[in-house]
Design a protein that fits this description.
By secondary structure, the chain is of the alpha/beta class. The chain has a single domain, classed as 3-Layer(aba) Sandwich (Rossmann fold), CATH 3.40.50. Helix content is 38%, strand content 15%. The protein has seven helices and six strands; from the N terminus they run βαβααβαβαβαβα. The protein has a six-stranded parallel β-sheet, sandwiched between helices. α1 packs parallel to α7. The longest helix is centred in the last third of the chain and has 21 residues. The radius of gyration is 16 Å and the shape is globular.
């Protein structure tokens, strides 16, 4: 299914990209924001992107924490960014369950495309893990790997390089916005 001329989006991984990595984050008290999180989300929103979080949360499937715990964390994240996130999609399954939603499978972003009318050709995914970039490759999205979280370790494990490598989410947002502006200028000049 393709939605051409649909809305543009940036899919953002949660742990290690939007917020600091905390292994199996289960409590709001342990939530740590990067100093640039709000500015990055605001920049994307101000430039017309939907901002959608896609996150594997196998701690639910492993019975480490419950969905209510995760939703409380998502509510706190949404509060921190002044309600600018359009949606959270999560996969609660363990890696061995073979579900359709766990990244690098496309269930979460296909659901978002259906829910929001997203054009994947105009959209991006930003993450700190190999599986985030692979999700982007599988969907035909622009791909950005950030060096926060597991990024420095995972960038060396990629068989195929992402479209962009950025120091953090704010640098990724700036690069995405600039790339879009450059493409718009080229289009207007007929290049």
């Amino acid at each position: 299914m393709t939605i051409e001329n649909g809305r543009k989006a940036v899919f953002i991984d949660r742990d290690g990209t939007l917020i600091e990595e905390v292994n199996f984050l289960s409590r709001v008290e342990d939530l740590r924001f990067f100093p640039f999180t709000l500015e990055a989300v605001k920049l994307l929103k101000d430039n017309g992107f939907l901002v959608i979080v896609v996150t594997n949360q196998s701690g639910i499937g492993r019975s480490i924490y419950g969905e209510d715990d995760m939703h409380a964390i998502h509510d706190e994240i949404q509060s921190h960014v002044d309600g600018r996130l359009d949606e959270f999609y999560f996969c609660p399954h363990r890696p061995d369950e073979g579900c359709r939603c766990r990244k690098p499978n496309l269930g979460m972003i296909e659901d978002a495309r259906r829910d929001f009318g997203i054009d994947f050709n105009r959209s991006w995914i930003v993450g700190d893990k190999k599986l985030d970039v692979e999700t982007g490759f599988n969907a035909g999205l622009g791909t950005v790997m950030v060096m926060t979280g597991y990024g420095k370790k995972h960038v060396g494990e990629l068989e195929r390089q992402p479209d962009l490598v950025a120091e953090n989410l704010l640098d990724a947002a700036r690069a995405i916005v600039e790339k879009e502006r450059n493409e718009k200028r080229k289009s207007e000049k007929g290049e």
